[in-house]
Predict the structure of 1,4-alpha-glucan branching enzyme GlgB.
Amino acid sequence: MPRHDSTMIDLSGASADCLAICAARHPDPFAWLGQHVVGQQSVRRAFLPDAFRVEIQTPKGWIAMEPIHSDGVFVHQGEALPLPYRLRWEDRHGFHEHYDPYVFGPVLGDLEIYLFGEGRLYEAYHHLGAHRHRHEGVDGVSFVVWAPNAERVSVVGDFNDWDGRIHPMRARGLSGLWELFVPELAVGEIYKFEMRHRDSGVVFVKTDPYANAFELRPSTAARVVEDNHVWTDQSWMAARAGHDWQHAPMNIYEVHLGSWQRDAAGHFLSYETLAERLVTYCKEMGYTHIELMPVMEHPLDESWGYQVSGYFAPTSRFGTPDGFRAFVDHFHQAGIGVLLDWVPGHFPKDDWGLARFDGTALYEHADPREGEHSDWGTYIFNYGRNEVRGFLLANACYWADSFHIDGLRVDAVASLLYRDYSRPEGEWIPNQYGGRENLEAIDFLREMNVALNERHPGILTIAEESTSWPMVSRPTYVGGLGFSMKWNMGWMNDTLAYLEQDPIYRRFHQNDLTFSQLYAYTENFVLPLSHDEVVHGKRSLLDKMPGDVWQRFANLRLLFSYQFAHPGKKLNFMGNEFGQGREWDCGQALDWDLLNSDWHQGIRRLNRDLAYLYRDIPALHVQDFQGEGFSWVDCHDADQSVLSFLRWDRDGGFVLAAFNFTPVPRYNYRLGVPTAGRYHEIFNSDAGAYHGGNIGNLPQQAQARAWMGLPHSLELVLPPLGAIYLQLTGTG
């Protein structure tokens, strides 16, 4: 129905409303533009800058509208017209014909507005941003943005010559939400939001925080897209909901899509091509999951994706959102899970992005003591603001819902937990109780974990958390943060520090290897050898290893062998698995030609074989998080730098793992075993297939000689800088 107003028709000159529309200063363009009843008449007003003439479609045909302002204001009066009606006009670009956008009703419902204000609109991605849909019988695109401190917000793009006067939006009460349905707008259009600050009057342009796609960098406009992917992973998703991940093998391949491989010209591969190549490789290598460094849109390649500018958009570097959906689908068809790095701890200061979004500190804190990370040159989200918390909660749900993601690895959790994170004294603000804990961020993390698990059973959340914060991977109902798992940074740092020692000094550092058992079951741990360990002068894993070429490769094989035997799920960064020689460089592909060398091919074969052993032998994975799955054989032989332990399954099966961290073979080395019977090597890191020296053990019968508190024992040779796994294969 036409709306009523009390403004008298003035065809003789420009009213205050008319001037405000022309100046893009009208507080409520829907109150004046479109069709309104004035007295006993009906008036239609349209603003079409630079139009020569305008006509309106009526039941009697096309009728010319009368110009009342030279900037392009046109009026038609008479009987009320059925809505919606069409306009056609001519300007310097030619002829146009469209429905009048100012005759359509609101897009958002009251419930959505209420939940958004509460920070509980978990499906905000269906409502905010740009969405192609049918509204009041007409196809078009609805735009919704949150900008509570704007006097006026307009949608701008190629479709209106980036003129902020043409498509001003409707304010939805005091919610801070602005919306506009633009009829007949097509998929593929690029757009931004132009705003005028209510106090300063400054006019500026911002990209859409909820955009689902963007132009290729360095351009920053959002793009209207549709989800047309037809999923074929129903079996995977159904099985995931009931998957017992705590007792299953989990071997994660961490990948940066821009530098895993490139084409012959050095250009990025598409999502589809990457999926084909990566799935083939991951299946061959025995990975159960792939973890992608951030694929959310980001302006700078060198940020590796951690300076996110488009939280709801897969980066256009590799293709379209549907291309990324196909990527995930392809992995699921192959039985491989897909995890994403997610960055809710900070965002960049680019003036076209989230920073000072509506002219004020909207998504961030205004006070730099709360709102800035000086280390990263970024802003910190204001987790205490409902709409900001809701933005991040909806974003986590979006990747699970729209892209079937199997888990989120949450970046830099410590920076969220502590108000004084990386801050000197006096440059942070305590919480309401005087403490350093960020109470609002803690509540956010707990709500995120609960919301994801309730809405997407079987999904995983993994915390990159580098402190001793308690119960990170324990349920919220017992006081935990609710994560599924946590990176074991202590294990990683201690193990690498130990292996970087010259073997002659390792006897003084045995505690670096044994200390992890004091806390190994306080959390559900992932053992990471991540990208952070092979950049910024830290050297590649291979280059960290001491000694000559033989010793460096033997040490690296020993590192991976120790990782796969130690309790905890596994993660390795791309290139580690074949002994990349140089530090990782995001600007070029990995050095795949190294696989022409037996040294590097040996490292790759070792990682492949370890992955399959870990997957196929329950003792190596089923009790990764339980102390019952581990027992020492001997942790005290520091003088010979030897370590040995047992890994147990839940039925009494076990694997004996022994490690010699010196380049000296240990002959006639006696190890206790719990059971009589015949033992054989199921793995030897010094095997010839791995380009080792091939020093090992034939199958042997356990001797009835108690040793190390165990009733039986074996007399073994421990290869130099080598690891062996043994298993009981019979009683004869």
